[in-house]
Specification:
The structure is a single chain. This protein is of the alpha+beta class. It has one domain: Hotdog Thioesterase (Thiol Ester Dehydrase, Chain A). Strands 1-2-3-5-6-7-4 form a seven-stranded antiparallel β-sheet, covered by helices on one side. The longest helix has 20 residues.
């Protein structure tokens, strides 16, 4: 429900395919950084009523490359994941708001290195390190405006 979403966050425009099953995901562009988040629902949880590690890894596989490439203003094409390492630092309990931000570390001709942190109601719950394959630009360059579907004010 929209009333459960923190102020300033808007639904992101990529809830297609597999993402229809985990979303919606929300984003907020603030101070040249993308903050991406979701509210933990039972469908995201393991039997202990905390976000399943697979859900958090999927979230990391979304927020790390998108946030890092926007922050770095890097056009890296589709960017399939080569490596994603996740450290689970604390549980993300049902009903909590999980929010991630990321940093670009390095871009080479063929690889893009990034890292991200996710919090659950403000407590760090996940650290992720990733490597993505740089591909030919698709003509659909990632931008904050495209992600949110309208002009984004900083």
């Amino acid at each position: 429900m929209a009333s459960d979403i923190p102020a300033g966050f808007k639904p992101l425009n990529f809830n297609i395919g597999f993402l229809e099953h985990i979303g919606p995901l929300y984003g907020k562009w603030e101070n040249e950084r993308l903050h991406m988040g979701f509210r933990v629902e039972m469908r995201h949880c393991n039997p202990g009523k905390v976000a399943h590690g697979g859900m958090l890894a999927t979230f990391a596989d979304m927020f790390v490359p998108i946030a890092a490439r926007l922050q770095a203003k890097a056009d890296i094409g589709f960017a399939p994941t080569i490596s994603l390492a996740c450290d689970y630092l604390a549980p993300a309990r049902i009903g909590s708001w999980v929010e991630g931000t990321a940093d670009a570390l390095r871009k080479t001709k063929s690889l893009f290195f990034a890292q991200g942190i996710a919090t659950s109601d403000g407590e760090i719950c996940l650290r992720a390190n990733a490597i993505f394959k740089v591909t030919e630009p698709t003509g659909l360059a990632m931008s904050a405006a495209r992600l949110f579907g309208d002009a984004v004010e900083d």
